[in-house]
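Priority: medium. Attachment 1 of 2:
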């Protein structure tokens, strides 16, 4: 179809490349690296995972294994791209397809100084025609699902009608999903961290978008912290994305597969996840030692980078502070003996938690 033609809002049935996964973990800078994704895949087999945002120049000219490499177990996995040039984004989408990614996403939501200087991220909400052209180029380049993650508004363009206009223009290019962070963003006056918390959440407007534009798939993002909250949102939208909650309490995903993906596989246990994740840690540390012996300038991830994904594994459970204290000590002195003791420590903490649960139930 002509991407500049008016969108027929009542077209049916909806069409999409690939399946819509009802739950995803948001792309987060300095969080959703390959180590955190490896942990999450040990907890949930079906949740869609994202990379950190990667800029087009990094994809096109950087060390692809270092920047884009991932473990096969991480599927389904989406690559989030930062850029505003249709040709460059199309080239990056082709690379994503060649590397086996399951989806590719364009970032239209990040408000950091970095994206402002490059005129991408949430800046692009002010130029929906360019986003449309980017989606057109990416969809012509690959057969992967191409999705858009954006805010509910930016600066003075923060009315529902402004978001609706953005979606209508971009939807003409037929992106496979709109992920809407239900907060507006301020390009000046708020830091990226403040933009995640200060602007109020406006869920009702995302729900209204899903009702009034049934021809598009809508995912909602922002502030969800429990499985019950996910279930409530899925009555109104197609999918739910969780961000900081996944980092702060990754174990909330332990029941996601059974509840939202109809999985019949048993839920994991924390000790089993710790033991499996430590295999990854030992593998990474062994590779780092090999690099040092080979004289490589890149030594690989530190113990802190490797262990921080499991730092919050016992959030809300007895012994959570002891667990973090033990991991912090290992970050400073990562001995084989100390690392290998972690599964038994996890068993101990699980037993304490089970005892507390029984006492509360009696």
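Attachment 2 of 2:
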């Amino acid at each position: 179809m002509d991407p500049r033609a008016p969108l027929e809002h009542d077209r049916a049935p909806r069409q999409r490349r690939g399946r819509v996964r009802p739950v995803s973990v948001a792309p987060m800078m300095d969080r959703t690296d390959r180590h955190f994704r490896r942990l999450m895949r040990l907890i949930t087999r079906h949740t869609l995972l994202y990379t950190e945002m990667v800029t087009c120049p990094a994809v096109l000219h950087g060390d692809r294994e270092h920047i884009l490499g991932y473990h096969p177990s991480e599927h389904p996995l989406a690559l989030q791209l930062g850029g505003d040039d249709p040709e460059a984004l199309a080239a990056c989408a082709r690379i994503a397809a060649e590397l086996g990614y399951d989806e590719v996403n364009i970032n239209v939501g990040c408000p950091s100084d970095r994206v402002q200087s490059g005129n991408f991220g949430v800046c692009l909400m002010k130029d929906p025609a360019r986003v449309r052209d980017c989606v057109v180029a990416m969809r012509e380049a690959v057969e992967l699902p191409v999705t858009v993650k954006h805010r509910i508004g930016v600066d003075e363009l923060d009315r529902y009608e402004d978001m609706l206009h953005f979606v209508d223009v971009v939807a003409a290019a037929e992106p496979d999903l709109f992920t809407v962070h239900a907060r507006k963003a301020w390009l000046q006056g708020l830091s990226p961290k403040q933009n995640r918390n200060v602007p109020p959440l406006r869920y009702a407007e995302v729900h209204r978008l899903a009702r009034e534009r049934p021809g598009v798939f809508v995912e909602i993002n922002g502030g969800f912290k429990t499985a019950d909250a996910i279930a409530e949102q899925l009555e109104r939208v197609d999918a739910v994305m969780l961000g900081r909650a996944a980092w702060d309490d990754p174990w909330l995903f332990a029941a996601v597969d059974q509840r939202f993906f109809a999985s019949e596989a048993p839920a994991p246990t924390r000790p089993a996840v710790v033991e499996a994740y430590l295999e990854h840690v030992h593998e990474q540390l062994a590779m780092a030692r090999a690099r040092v012996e080979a004289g490589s300038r890149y030594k690989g991830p530190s113990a802190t980078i490797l262990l921080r994904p499991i730092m919050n594994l016992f959030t809300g459970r007895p012994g959570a502070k002891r667990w973090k204290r033990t991991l912090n000590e290992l970050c400073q002195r990562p001995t084989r003996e100390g690392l290998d003791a972690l599964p038994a420590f996890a068993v101990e903490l699980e037993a304490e938690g089970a005892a507390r649960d029984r006492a509360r139930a009696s």
